[in-house]
Amino acid sequence: MSDIHPIARRGLMLVLSSPSGAGKTTISRALLKTDDHLTMSISVTTREPRPGEEHGKDYFFVSEAEYQKMAKGGELLEHARVFENFYGTPRGYVEEQLAAGRDVLFDIDWQGTQQLKASAGADLVSVFILPPSIGDLEKRLRGRAQDSEEVVQRRMSRAADEMSHWPEYDYVVVNRDVDQSIAQVRAILLAERLRQSRRASGLVAFVNGMRAEA
């Protein structure tokens, strides 16, 4: 997918959030597969690399001391502790992508989204993915066959609280049909790319060029 007209613009930060099993990962993968202007956010983490993971591709692997220095220095747009490890979004990497006109996709929860709102301002576009029903959500979780009964129940108990945060998002998509949901998120992305505020500098140059030719 490309913009309607190749006018220079600033990139945006696209956040997708949902309860586990509602489909945000499937939607994210589909967007990344078909959109050359969209890149996945790369998080910084203090955990050890797993087999096959690469520094700078899957994560930025750092020591806890390095992580704390980044957090205290304002170098992370959002950060959190997950069990015994720390995770965060490096400001420098994201800003570099946005300045180059590339959009950055985030697969994070409502807490991370709140932190991004405070630090990203108008660069942020947030979308919450809802399941069509609680029964459907549970069916999807069980259908993945990758979690124990205990994990499924824990995810289900968290879902109600997670879904209560939908009013904090710019857009809400009910994932009844995954292809339709992907199309809806693509439409959101295209509309946000065409915002005058994101294309201001490019539009000035474009219009001034036409005026000079008139």
Write structural notes for this entry.
- By secondary structure, the chain is of the alpha/beta class.
- The protein has a domain at 13-41 and 103-213: 3-Layer(aba) Sandwich (Rossmann fold).
- 44% of the residues lie in helices and 19% in strands.
- It contains eight helices and nine strands.
- The chain has a five-stranded parallel sheet, with helices on both faces. It has a four-stranded mixed sheet with strand order 4-3-6-5.
- β5 and β6 (85-90) form a beta hairpin.
- α1 packs across α7 (178-193).
- The longest helix has 16 residues, at 178-193.
- The protein is globular.
- The two termini are 32 Å apart.
The helix/strand series, from N terminus to C terminus, equals: EHEEEHEEHEHEHHEHH
DSSP summary: helix tally: 8
- Classified in CATH, the superfamily of the domain at 13-41 and 103-213 is P-loop containing nucleotide triphosphate hydrolases
Q: Report the sheet-strand fraction.
A: 15-25%
The major sheet is characterized as:
5 strands, parallel
What layout of secondary structure does this protein have?
Layout: E1 13-17, H1 24-34, E2 38-40, E3 44-45, E4 60-61, H2 64-72, E5 76-82, E6 85-90, H3 91-99, E7 103-107, H4 110-120, E8 124-130, H5 134-143, H6 149-163, E9 171-174, H7 178-193, H8 200-213
Parallel strand pairs: 1-7, 1-8, 2-7, 3-4, 8-9
Antiparallel strand pairs: 3-6, 5-6
Précis, in short:
The protein is of the alpha/beta class and 214 residues long. It has helices at 24-34, 64-72, 91-99, 110-120, 134-143, 149-163, 178-193, 200-213, and strands spanning 13-17, 38-40, 44-45, 60-61, 76-82, 85-90, 103-107, 124-130, 171-174.
